[in-house]
């Protein structure tokens, strides 16, 4: 499938809000238990994976998001007893993308010397005829010269809208199907969380219904520098982080 750029801005009557959720895996066509579990699958499930950054459950990161569990969690799978081998960003994201432990995929920390964003391990799985879309933060060092520059697209992605470098909301660059796309500080055109959300919706609208799809949406929010959209900047001004685990 030829990769074509999707919309470039976020100003749209279709804006449906910024994506924000704990890592959630939507599987709309889940198999049921019993005899049906043994039946052969004729068509793979569609997959939507939303990965937010530093959305800490201990600090109550999901508490203000009343609709997230109903609209996303209850419609898919929520991992309530999940663990990560390392609390660092690059090793954890690499494990999500490869299904391997850090000692197997070789990413030790968030630096290039620690193998973060090294194209050498990004071989990608067989696509199995999936239409694939990625938007947002990939790995901390993505786009650097020693990591393949902005032209590097890991194998397996049809539509690629990756943030160059680490978490930013304005004044950043994207690799859009291997070509650099620079953004400024205008909310309507550049606010990253909304921009990649709307591009993911465009992908869903334009995809082929004959083939399954895999969509990975990876906003840097709520990672520092904590730049909220203008309409949300005062929403939680009086909220304090909990001092214990009683959430």
From TrEMBL:
Source domain of life is Eukaryota
Q: Does the record's keyword annotation contain tRNA processing?
A: no
- Leader sequence segment: 1-37
Span of domain Sulfatase N-terminal: 45-242
Needed cofactors: Ca(2+)
Pfam families, A to Z: Sulfatase
Molecular function per GO: glycosaminoglycan binding; N-acetylglucosamine-6-sulfatase activity
Q: Which Gene3D superfamilies match?
A: Alkaline Phosphatase, subunit A (3.40.720.10)
**What's in the keyword line of the UniProt record?**
Glycoprotein, Hydrolase, Signal
Question: What SUPFAM superfamilies does UniProt report for this protein, alphabetically?
Answer: Alkaline phosphatase-like (SSF53649)
InterPro entries the record matches: Alkaline_phosphatase_core_sf, Sulfatase_CS, Sulfatase_N
Listed PANTHER family: N-ACETYLGLUCOSAMINE-6-SULFATASE, N-ACETYLGLUCOSAMINE-6-SULFATASE FAMILY MEMBER
Which protein family is it in? Answer: Belongs to the sulfatase family.
Q: What is this protein called?
A: Sulfatase N-terminal domain-containing protein
């Amino acid at each position: 499938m030829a990769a074509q750029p999707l919309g470039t801005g976020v100003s749209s009557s279709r804006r449906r809000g910024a994506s924000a959720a704990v890592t959630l895996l939507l599987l709309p066509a889940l198999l049921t238990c019993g005899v049906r579990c043994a039946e052969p699958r004729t068509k793979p499930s569609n997959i939507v994976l939303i990965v937010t950054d530093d959305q800490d459950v201990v600090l109550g990161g999901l508490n203000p998001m009343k609709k997230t569990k109903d609209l996303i969690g209850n419609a898919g799978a929520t991992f309530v007893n999940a663990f990560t081998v390392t609390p660092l960003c690059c090793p954890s994201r690499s494990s999500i993308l490869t299904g391997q432990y850090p000692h197997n995929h070789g990413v030790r920390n968030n630096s290039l010397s620690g193998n973060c964003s090294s194209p050498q391990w990004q071989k990608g799985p067989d696509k199995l005829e999936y239409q694939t879309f990625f938007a947002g933060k990939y790995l901390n060092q993505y786009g650097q010269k020693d990591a393949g520059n902005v032209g590097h697209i890991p194998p397996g992605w049809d539509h690629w809208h990756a943030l160059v470098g680490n978490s930013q909301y304005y004044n950043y660059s994207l690799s859009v199907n291997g070509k650099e796309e620079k953004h400024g500080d205008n909310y309507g055109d550049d606010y990253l969380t909304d921009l990649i959300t709307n591009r993911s919706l465009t992908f869903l609208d334009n995809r082929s219904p004959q083939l399954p799809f895999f969509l990975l949406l990876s906003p840097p929010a709520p990672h520092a520098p904590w730049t909220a959209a203008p309409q949300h900047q005062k929403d939680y001004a009086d909220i304090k982080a909990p001092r214990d685990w009683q959430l």
